[in-house]
Amino acid sequence: MVTVTLLGIAQDGGRPQAGCVKQCCHDIAREDWSYPVSLGIIGDDGKGHLIEASRHLTDQLQIWGNNEISSVWLTHAHLGHVDGLGLFGKETMGKTGLNLHLSESMLNLVHNNPFWKALLDQNVFIPTTFEDTDEITLDSGFSIQAVKVPHRDELSDMHAFLLKGEKKNLLFLPDHDTWKETLDFHGVDTIRGFLSKFEVDIALIDGTFWSSNELSGRFQHEVPHPPISQTLEMLGSKNERDPDIFFIHLNHTNPLYFDGPERKILLDSGWKIGVQGSVFEL
Ligand SMILES: [Zn+2]
Ligand SMILES: [Zn+2]
Ligand SMILES: [Zn+2]
Hints:
By secondary structure, the protein is α/β, with parallel strands linked by helices. It has a single domain (about 5-280), classed as 4-Layer Sandwich (Metallo-beta-lactamase, Chain A), CATH 3.60.15.10. Helices cover about 20% and strands about 25% of the residues. The protein has helices at about 55-65, 80, 105-110, 115-120, 180-185, 190-195, 220, 230-235, 260-270; strands at about 5-10, 40, 50, 70-75, 100-105, 125-130, 135, 145-150, 160-165, 170-175, 200-205, 245-250, 270-275, 280. It has a 7-stranded mixed β-sheet.
């Protein structure tokens, strides 16, 4: 059996977010902290595969209950997806020969960052690049397909991952700019069309912001993600044959962290909110 554990549901900054003195991050108990999005996969051979490397890896390995990692996969270069890479090096875990799967543009960035390059020079990671649509079969009873999506690419491009198990396919799409660009890029008209193109059963998708006015002033335009309210409008209510959709990558300002009207609207429509520590079987 292949299991996928959701090791974090927060946007890159986590929750509480450093420096936030507003109500959203006030007095959150340690056990209620949300870590940046990440997945831990255990294959049917018992090997562990990690998607994203966040600085909260210590806590996330505890949630996962696994320390044996044989490969690491990166979607893109933004902070919370990569800021734990150094933890695999000699100061901490002291790994060697760990398979690192990433895109060509992400690898270029690794080579150009002295800190990350040292991890390659010290043989901590053995990099393997993938391209859009590449499907890599692991000896663990599942495969991972790279699915390119448009997302701010000032550092690297962005690939969602489609995990294909024997029974189910799970899509991990934590970040993208707009549905219009993503759907256009994949030549489909609707979110349902996009998900059925990849035969998705479980979709973990970008739920960074509830609405576009959640951030004030200039940030509104600098941090583009499709607001959940728009995604819900496009989706309508869940039908029996629809995949299960879980919103993840929630910004600390996201009202879904609280039991309010937004949560009710989403749940009443039949969709779900990612729960840190939850496990999916593929
Ligand atoms: Zn992100
Ligand atoms: Zn906050
Ligand atoms: Zn991003």
